[in-house]
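Illustration 12: Glutathione S-transferase C-terminal domain-containing protein.
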Amino acid sequence: MAYVNPSGEFTRDQRYIATRITADGRDGYPVEPGRYRLVVSRACPWANRSIIVRRLLGLEDVLSMGVCGPTHDERSWTFDLDPGGRDPVLGIERLQEAFLARFPDYDKGITVPAIVDVPTGKVVTNDFAQITVDLSVEWAKHHRAGAPQLYPAALRDEIDSVNEVVFKDVNNGVYRAGFAGSQEAYSTAYARLFERLDWLSARLEGQRYLVGDTITEADVRLFTTLVRFDAVYHGHFKCNRQKLSEMPVLWAYARDLFQTPGFGDTIDFGHIKRHYYEVHRDINPTGIVPDGPDLSGWLTPHGREALGGRPFGDGTPPGPPQPGEAVARA
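Figure caption equivalent — predicted structure in C-alpha coordinate form:
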Protein backbone atom coordinates (compact mmCIF):
# COMPACT_ATOMS: atom_id res chain seq x y z
CA MET A 1 0.00 0.00 0.00
CA ALA A 2 1.59 3.29 -1.13
CA TYR A 3 1.26 6.56 0.77
CA VAL A 4 3.83 8.77 -0.95
CA ASN A 5 2.54 10.74 -3.94
CA PRO A 6 5.12 10.06 -6.67
CA SER A 7 4.09 13.18 -8.58
CA GLY A 8 4.94 15.49 -5.70
CA GLU A 9 2.57 17.07 -3.18
CA PHE A 10 0.50 14.87 -0.88
CA THR A 11 -3.21 15.69 -0.95
CA ARG A 12 -5.44 14.22 1.74
CA ASP A 13 -8.66 12.55 0.64
CA GLN A 14 -11.24 14.47 2.68
CA ARG A 15 -14.37 12.77 1.34
CA TYR A 16 -15.87 11.80 4.67
CA ILE A 17 -19.37 10.59 5.50
CA ALA A 18 -21.08 13.82 6.52
CA THR A 19 -24.06 12.29 8.34
CA ARG A 20 -24.35 13.72 11.84
CA ILE A 21 -25.69 12.41 15.13
CA THR A 22 -27.69 15.31 16.56
CA ALA A 23 -29.94 16.11 19.47
CA ASP A 24 -32.92 16.56 17.13
CA GLY A 25 -32.02 13.61 14.88
CA ARG A 26 -32.37 15.69 11.71
CA ASP A 27 -30.07 13.35 9.75
CA GLY A 28 -31.97 10.30 10.95
CA TYR A 29 -29.59 9.55 13.80
CA PRO A 30 -30.68 11.13 17.11
CA VAL A 31 -28.40 11.17 20.13
CA GLU A 32 -29.33 8.12 22.20
CA PRO A 33 -27.32 6.66 25.10
CA GLY A 34 -26.04 3.19 24.27
CA ARG A 35 -27.05 3.24 20.61
CA TYR A 36 -23.70 4.07 19.02
CA ARG A 37 -20.12 2.80 19.19
CA LEU A 38 -17.11 5.01 18.64
CA VAL A 39 -14.42 3.03 16.79
CA VAL A 40 -10.87 4.29 17.17
CA SER A 41 -7.22 3.37 17.07
CA ARG A 42 -4.94 4.85 19.69
CA ALA A 43 -2.28 5.13 16.99
CA CYS A 44 -4.24 7.65 14.92
CA PRO A 45 -4.08 11.38 15.76
CA TRP A 46 -7.51 12.06 14.25
CA ALA A 47 -9.08 9.29 16.35
CA ASN A 48 -7.11 10.38 19.41
CA ARG A 49 -9.04 13.65 19.36
CA SER A 50 -12.34 11.83 19.84
CA ILE A 51 -10.89 9.63 22.59
CA ILE A 52 -9.79 12.72 24.51
CA VAL A 53 -13.04 14.65 24.02
CA ARG A 54 -15.19 11.66 24.97
CA ARG A 55 -13.18 11.29 28.16
CA LEU A 56 -13.09 14.98 29.08
CA LEU A 57 -16.87 15.23 28.64
CA GLY A 58 -17.56 12.01 30.53
CA LEU A 59 -19.44 10.28 27.74
CA GLU A 60 -18.06 6.80 28.42
CA ASP A 61 -21.34 5.43 29.79
CA VAL A 62 -23.44 6.68 26.87
CA LEU A 63 -21.06 6.15 23.94
CA SER A 64 -19.10 2.89 24.01
CA MET A 65 -15.68 2.65 22.38
CA GLY A 66 -14.12 -0.08 20.27
CA VAL A 67 -10.35 0.00 19.88
CA CYS A 68 -8.66 -1.32 16.75
CA GLY A 69 -5.05 -2.45 16.72
CA PRO A 70 -2.25 -0.10 15.67
CA THR A 71 -1.81 -1.47 12.14
CA HIS A 72 -4.04 -2.04 9.15
CA ASP A 73 -3.87 -3.22 5.57
CA GLU A 74 -5.57 -2.08 2.37
CA ARG A 75 -8.90 -3.49 3.59
CA SER A 76 -9.03 -1.39 6.75
CA TRP A 77 -8.53 -1.39 10.50
CA THR A 78 -9.04 -4.65 12.36
CA PHE A 79 -10.13 -5.58 15.88
CA ASP A 80 -7.07 -7.73 16.51
CA LEU A 81 -6.83 -6.58 20.14
CA ASP A 82 -10.12 -8.29 21.02
CA PRO A 83 -10.62 -11.99 21.80
CA GLY A 84 -11.12 -13.88 18.56
CA GLY A 85 -10.27 -10.76 16.59
CA ARG A 86 -13.85 -9.47 16.73
CA ASP A 87 -15.28 -6.35 18.30
CA PRO A 88 -17.33 -7.63 21.27
CA VAL A 89 -20.24 -5.25 20.60
CA LEU A 90 -20.40 -5.06 16.81
CA GLY A 91 -19.26 -8.64 16.22
CA ILE A 92 -17.12 -7.67 13.22
CA GLU A 93 -13.48 -8.34 12.38
CA ARG A 94 -12.86 -5.24 10.29
CA LEU A 95 -14.21 -1.71 10.38
CA GLN A 96 -14.74 -2.13 6.64
CA GLU A 97 -17.76 -4.35 7.39
CA ALA A 98 -19.65 -1.44 9.00
CA PHE A 99 -18.95 0.83 6.03
CA LEU A 100 -20.07 -1.77 3.47
CA ALA A 101 -23.19 -2.51 5.52
CA ARG A 102 -24.39 1.01 4.82
CA PHE A 103 -22.69 1.64 1.47
CA PRO A 104 -22.13 -1.65 -0.43
CA ASP A 105 -20.15 0.17 -3.15
CA TYR A 106 -18.17 2.39 -0.75
CA ASP A 107 -14.99 3.51 -2.51
CA LYS A 108 -13.51 6.10 -0.16
CA GLY A 109 -11.17 5.77 2.78
CA ILE A 110 -12.21 3.55 5.67
CA THR A 111 -10.92 5.68 8.49
CA VAL A 112 -11.00 6.14 12.25
CA PRO A 113 -12.62 7.63 14.16
CA ALA A 114 -15.92 6.26 12.97
CA ILE A 115 -19.23 6.02 14.77
CA VAL A 116 -21.33 2.93 14.12
CA ASP A 117 -25.03 2.45 14.77
CA VAL A 118 -25.04 -0.69 16.92
CA PRO A 119 -28.58 -1.98 16.14
CA THR A 120 -27.96 -1.97 12.37
CA GLY A 121 -24.18 -2.42 12.33
CA LYS A 122 -23.94 0.43 9.83
CA VAL A 123 -21.41 3.26 9.96
CA VAL A 124 -22.96 6.66 10.62
CA THR A 125 -20.01 9.00 10.16
CA ASN A 126 -16.23 9.19 9.95
CA ASP A 127 -16.07 12.99 9.71
CA PHE A 128 -13.44 13.37 12.42
CA ALA A 129 -13.57 17.17 12.65
CA GLN A 130 -17.34 17.25 13.09
CA ILE A 131 -17.44 14.28 15.47
CA THR A 132 -15.66 16.07 18.31
CA VAL A 133 -17.62 19.30 17.85
CA ASP A 134 -20.87 17.34 17.97
CA LEU A 135 -19.77 15.49 21.10
CA SER A 136 -19.44 18.91 22.73
CA VAL A 137 -22.63 20.47 21.38
CA GLU A 138 -25.16 17.80 20.38
CA TRP A 139 -24.39 15.40 23.23
CA ALA A 140 -24.40 18.14 25.90
CA LYS A 141 -27.40 16.66 27.73
CA HIS A 142 -25.30 13.60 28.55
CA HIS A 143 -22.07 15.29 29.66
CA ARG A 144 -20.77 14.47 33.12
CA ALA A 145 -21.27 16.96 35.94
CA GLY A 146 -18.34 19.37 35.77
CA ALA A 147 -17.57 18.73 32.09
CA PRO A 148 -15.56 21.55 30.49
CA GLN A 149 -16.83 23.79 27.71
CA LEU A 150 -14.56 22.68 24.86
CA TYR A 151 -16.45 24.61 22.19
CA PRO A 152 -18.02 27.60 23.97
CA ALA A 153 -20.30 29.70 21.78
CA ALA A 154 -18.49 32.96 22.54
CA LEU A 155 -15.15 31.60 21.30
CA ARG A 156 -16.24 29.46 18.35
CA ASP A 157 -15.15 31.88 15.64
CA GLU A 158 -11.66 32.15 17.12
CA ILE A 159 -11.43 28.41 17.75
CA ASP A 160 -12.47 27.71 14.15
CA SER A 161 -9.93 30.21 12.83
CA VAL A 162 -7.07 28.68 14.82
CA ASN A 163 -8.16 25.15 13.93
CA GLU A 164 -8.15 25.96 10.22
CA VAL A 165 -4.53 27.09 10.08
CA VAL A 166 -3.34 24.41 12.50
CA PHE A 167 -4.98 21.72 10.36
CA LYS A 168 -3.48 22.99 7.10
CA ASP A 169 0.04 23.62 8.34
CA VAL A 170 0.53 21.31 11.34
CA ASN A 171 -2.00 18.46 11.69
CA ASN A 172 -1.92 17.77 7.96
CA GLY A 173 1.37 19.56 7.45
CA VAL A 174 3.44 16.73 8.92
CA TYR A 175 1.79 14.34 6.44
CA ARG A 176 2.42 16.74 3.55
CA ALA A 177 6.09 16.59 4.44
CA GLY A 178 6.21 12.86 5.14
CA PHE A 179 4.28 11.75 2.06
CA ALA A 180 5.79 14.25 -0.39
CA GLY A 181 7.12 12.65 -3.55
CA SER A 182 9.46 15.43 -4.62
CA GLN A 183 12.08 17.59 -2.97
CA GLU A 184 10.12 20.73 -3.84
CA ALA A 185 6.87 19.47 -2.31
CA TYR A 186 8.69 18.30 0.82
CA SER A 187 10.59 21.55 1.27
CA THR A 188 7.42 23.61 0.87
CA ALA A 189 5.57 21.53 3.45
CA TYR A 190 8.56 21.59 5.82
CA ALA A 191 8.77 25.38 5.67
CA ARG A 192 5.02 25.82 6.26
CA LEU A 193 5.10 23.44 9.20
CA PHE A 194 7.89 25.17 11.07
CA GLU A 195 6.65 28.67 10.26
CA ARG A 196 3.35 27.68 11.87
CA LEU A 197 5.06 26.06 14.86
CA ASP A 198 6.99 29.30 15.37
CA TRP A 199 3.69 31.21 15.16
CA LEU A 200 2.17 28.89 17.74
CA SER A 201 5.17 29.29 20.02
CA ALA A 202 4.78 33.06 19.92
CA ARG A 203 1.05 32.78 20.61
CA LEU A 204 1.52 30.42 23.55
CA GLU A 205 4.47 32.18 25.13
CA GLY A 206 2.18 34.50 27.06
CA GLN A 207 -0.99 32.44 27.38
CA ARG A 208 -1.51 28.94 28.70
CA TYR A 209 -4.02 27.75 26.10
CA LEU A 210 -4.65 28.49 22.44
CA VAL A 211 -8.00 30.29 22.81
CA GLY A 212 -9.17 31.88 26.05
CA ASP A 213 -7.96 30.76 29.46
CA THR A 214 -9.31 27.20 29.42
CA ILE A 215 -8.79 24.04 27.39
CA THR A 216 -10.81 24.05 24.18
CA GLU A 217 -11.22 21.99 21.01
CA ALA A 218 -8.23 23.88 19.59
CA ASP A 219 -5.88 22.50 22.25
CA VAL A 220 -7.12 18.96 21.70
CA ARG A 221 -6.43 19.20 17.96
CA LEU A 222 -2.92 20.58 18.34
CA PHE A 223 -1.97 18.20 21.15
CA THR A 224 -2.53 15.01 19.17
CA THR A 225 0.05 16.13 16.60
CA LEU A 226 2.56 17.46 19.12
CA VAL A 227 2.48 14.28 21.21
CA ARG A 228 3.51 12.27 18.13
CA PHE A 229 6.19 14.68 16.98
CA ASP A 230 9.38 13.31 18.49
CA ALA A 231 8.26 9.68 18.42
CA VAL A 232 7.32 9.72 14.73
CA TYR A 233 7.19 12.94 12.73
CA HIS A 234 10.70 14.21 13.47
CA GLY A 235 12.38 11.15 11.98
CA HIS A 236 9.84 9.15 9.99
CA PHE A 237 8.35 12.22 8.25
CA LYS A 238 11.63 14.17 8.10
CA CYS A 239 10.23 17.09 10.15
CA ASN A 240 13.65 17.53 11.67
CA ARG A 241 14.51 21.20 12.06
CA GLN A 242 14.03 20.60 15.76
CA LYS A 243 12.47 18.04 18.02
CA LEU A 244 9.47 19.17 20.03
CA SER A 245 11.67 18.80 23.11
CA GLU A 246 13.96 21.46 21.57
CA MET A 247 11.14 24.01 21.17
CA PRO A 248 10.79 25.33 24.75
CA VAL A 249 7.32 26.90 24.62
CA LEU A 250 5.60 24.12 22.67
CA TRP A 251 7.35 21.43 24.68
CA ALA A 252 6.16 22.95 27.96
CA TYR A 253 2.64 23.45 26.53
CA ALA A 254 2.45 19.84 25.33
CA ARG A 255 3.71 18.52 28.69
CA ASP A 256 1.12 20.65 30.50
CA LEU A 257 -1.65 19.01 28.49
CA PHE A 258 -0.10 15.53 28.69
CA GLN A 259 -0.15 15.78 32.48
CA THR A 260 -3.79 16.95 32.46
CA PRO A 261 -6.30 14.12 33.09
CA GLY A 262 -7.88 13.07 29.82
CA PHE A 263 -4.87 13.78 27.63
CA GLY A 264 -1.73 11.81 28.47
CA ASP A 265 -3.71 8.90 29.83
CA THR A 266 -5.10 8.29 26.33
CA ILE A 267 -1.67 8.06 24.69
CA ASP A 268 -0.13 4.73 23.72
CA PHE A 269 3.32 5.46 22.34
CA GLY A 270 3.84 1.80 21.47
CA HIS A 271 0.77 1.80 19.23
CA ILE A 272 1.75 5.15 17.73
CA LYS A 273 5.24 4.02 16.72
CA ARG A 274 4.08 0.63 15.45
CA HIS A 275 1.46 2.19 13.20
CA TYR A 276 3.67 4.64 11.37
CA TYR A 277 6.82 2.54 11.09
CA GLU A 278 5.09 -0.76 10.25
CA VAL A 279 2.31 0.47 7.96
CA HIS A 280 4.17 3.05 5.84
CA ARG A 281 6.43 0.56 4.08
CA ASP A 282 7.09 2.89 1.14
CA ILE A 283 8.83 5.18 3.65
CA ASN A 284 10.22 2.50 5.99
CA PRO A 285 10.57 -0.69 3.87
CA THR A 286 12.00 -2.84 6.68
CA GLY A 287 9.12 -2.14 9.05
CA ILE A 288 11.63 -1.78 11.88
CA VAL A 289 10.20 0.21 14.79
CA PRO A 290 12.79 2.39 16.54
CA ASP A 291 13.48 1.81 20.21
CA GLY A 292 13.75 5.54 20.92
CA PRO A 293 13.27 8.29 21.67
CA ASP A 294 13.38 8.55 25.45
CA LEU A 295 9.83 9.53 26.39
CA SER A 296 10.32 10.00 30.12
CA GLY A 297 10.48 13.79 29.73
CA TRP A 298 6.72 14.00 29.27
CA LEU A 299 6.26 13.78 33.04
CA THR A 300 8.78 16.48 33.98
CA PRO A 301 7.60 19.84 35.43
CA HIS A 302 6.41 22.30 32.77
CA GLY A 303 5.95 25.55 34.70
CA ARG A 304 2.93 26.64 32.66
CA GLU A 305 0.84 27.19 35.80
CA ALA A 306 2.60 30.56 36.11
CA LEU A 307 0.59 31.78 33.12
CA GLY A 308 -2.66 31.31 35.03
CA GLY A 309 -5.56 29.80 33.18
CA ARG A 310 -8.08 27.29 34.44
CA PRO A 311 -7.80 24.00 32.59
CA PHE A 312 -11.45 23.01 33.04
CA GLY A 313 -12.92 26.48 33.56
CA ASP A 314 -15.71 26.23 36.12
CA GLY A 315 -15.70 22.46 35.73
CA THR A 316 -13.60 19.64 37.12
CA PRO A 317 -11.11 17.09 35.79
CA PRO A 318 -12.44 13.73 34.64
CA GLY A 319 -11.94 10.76 36.90
CA PRO A 320 -9.56 7.92 36.05
CA PRO A 321 -10.11 5.95 32.83
CA GLN A 322 -12.80 3.32 32.99
CA PRO A 323 -11.80 -0.32 33.50
CA GLY A 324 -10.62 -1.75 30.23
CA GLU A 325 -9.83 1.66 28.74
CA ALA A 326 -6.63 2.47 30.63
CA VAL A 327 -3.44 2.54 28.57
CA ALA A 328 -0.74 0.18 29.80
CA ARG A 329 2.49 1.97 30.63
CA ALA A 330 5.84 0.36 29.89
